[in-house]
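Lecture 7 notes: from sequence to structure.
We start with the chain below.
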Amino acid sequence: MQDLLFSIFPNENFIDLCLYQYGWERCKPAHMYGPAARNHFLFHYVLSGTGTLMANNKNGETQTYHIRSGQGFLLFPGQISTYIASETTPWEYTWVEFDGLRVKEMLDIAGFSQDQPLYRATSKEYREHMMNEMLYIANHSEEPPFHLIGHLYLFFDALTRSMTNIHMGNTSKMSDYYIREAIHYIEQNFPYEITIEDIARHCGINRSYFGKIFHKSVGRTPQEFLINYRMMKATELLKMTQLSIADIGNAVGYPNQLNFSRAFKNTYGVSPKNWRKEHQ
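Predicted structure tokens for the same chain:
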């Protein structure tokens, strides 16, 4: 019986969210990995059994965590860690290693930090969605990069949803929920002519309040975030496709090529055409 699946992602051209390696393992008793540090974020989800994680916190102190099935742990880039399967009930887990411009923001929404690396779901439904996405990625390494990145986004969506209790009365928790919903809406609708009012309406709050909590959480206005997100998507298309500048502009929400080129140059300091020449 096979005890290990391991794959390396063949493409690092994805800017927002990129996959590096992923897999699944049924560990032998007392199987140990580490001490080691990764270059990217690494998330493990425990399918069965138990084990122990020892990881450095922000102060460099080693913390010990006992983890069982249905739980998981996140390791940050550069964080020294060791994890060991139980001698009597060794764990079986699946993992993904990832990074990108959007990752820190999504992990903040989920509540992860080096001082809080444990994954404990508040939603069984979304926890199972997340697990299924991880197992799908582990078992479909032959699929094209865009296909796997799509499932990585679905994994992240389920991860954040499974850890956010939207019924809590705590204002900060509700703010996190609104921000997550807004970002999800932008991800799904950025190719269309959406407005900030549309996003606020989707979240069920007024535009003024939405703008205030978004800027406080993300560090930029909703309009700035939307433009920056569209421009990052545009750079992916410029680098990885042969689409015309007009078609790329249309694909990221700018049906007018002049408006697209102006917004792109305001963001990157060069025209889309020159950016493509520099990066191909």
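Points to note: The first helix runs from residue 103 to 110. The first strand starts at residue 4 and ends at 8.
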